[in-house]
Amino acid sequence: MSPSQSILAQLLAATNVLIVTHQDPDFDAIGSSLALYWALKKQGKAPTVWVPQVIAENYDCLPGIESRAIAFPSDTKFDLIVALDAARKERIAEWETLPNLPIINIDHHQDNPEYGDTNHVVRISSVGELLTELFSDWKWPLSTDIATCLYAAIAFDTSRFQYNSVTPDTHRRAASLLEHNINHTRLNESIFERKDHHYFSIIKSTCDNMIVDHDYGICYTKLTNLPDTMGSEIIDFIRQQEGMAVYAVFRTTESGDVKVSLRSKLNFDVAAFAAQFGGGGHKMAAGIRLTDISLDEAITRVITALKKEVK
Q1: pLDDT tens across 211-255, in order?
Q2: Is the same domain home to 75 and 221?
Q3: Which CATH number characterizes residue 257's domain?
Q4: How many Cβ atoms sit within 10 Å of the Cβ of residue 100?
Q5: Cα distance between residue 94 and residue 193, in whole Å
Q6: Of the candidates 239, 60, 214, which has an alpha carbon nearest to the alpha carbon of residue 162?
Q7: Domain ends where: 173, 192, 211?
Q8: Other C-beta atoms lying within 10 Å of the C-beta of residue 104
């Protein structure tokens, strides 16, 4: 039995399905989770989306966002766990709290070790696109709510269809979602264009602290206490600097850790580079989390290693 058909059989056999995703969730993570939530409800199931972290206000464009569980729903006896967009089990938010149940792992990260009892890990633009393909294979009907969540997931993880992970099939699947009466204009505005004054002050700090090293083709910046919800936005902002091979954003967290976001425009594999620091992700988009180290020490350590690899 293929992973797709195995997943379908398990979902149909279950009643209470717990849907989880990675820490610091983004629109692919939450959009995909809510899409599966609505799809399972149409199948007569009782799904729960557990997101134990604060998310930004602009996620209100996703139907069902108010239904997510923030505290772990300990009063529900679950049959099955579905992990979406989580490259490793340890990346699942508060994964230690999860009950000992079969895990279905649906993901698109190249370094996913297939930690689930059932795994469907595919090189594709987003988990949103992967679910669109699965729902089509299963002949599950889409609603406006499902299509809206899937489209948001795809649009976000492709940065409005500009990354090289986008294929003709990506556009075809996105086009099929547009047939379900979704407001893609409002979605894109909510995801990419709802910026307050604080955002622009962070952009100013980003520019003030930005280093452009033309000799090595590295562009990076540092920020303190950057909200997790803005990490991808800042790295996407600085990658507009032309002529660079690698881009990095170094930022501190409330816990005192240092998070590093990495992007590549050329053939440099940032996921492979991040692995030496315990991080990972995609070939052209990856991340690192460093503990017990200052922001400046983290920059020195990572940039020194990066220069060796780039050369």
Answers
A1: 999 999 999 999 987 776 677 789 989 999 999 999 999 999 877
A2: no
A3: 3.10.310.30
A4: 6
A5: 30
A6: 239
A7: 192
A8: 22
By residue range, what is the domain housing residue 211?
199-310
Answer with the one of 177, 192, 207 that is the final residue of a domain: 192
Residues 236/262, Cβ–Cβ less than 8 Å: no
Give the mean pLDDT of the chain: 93
- Asked whether the predicted pLDDT for residue 108 surpasses 80, the reply is yes
46 pairs with which residues across the strands?
A: 16
Same domain, 15 and 115: yes
pTM: 0.86
Mark whether 291 and 260 lie in a shared domain: yes
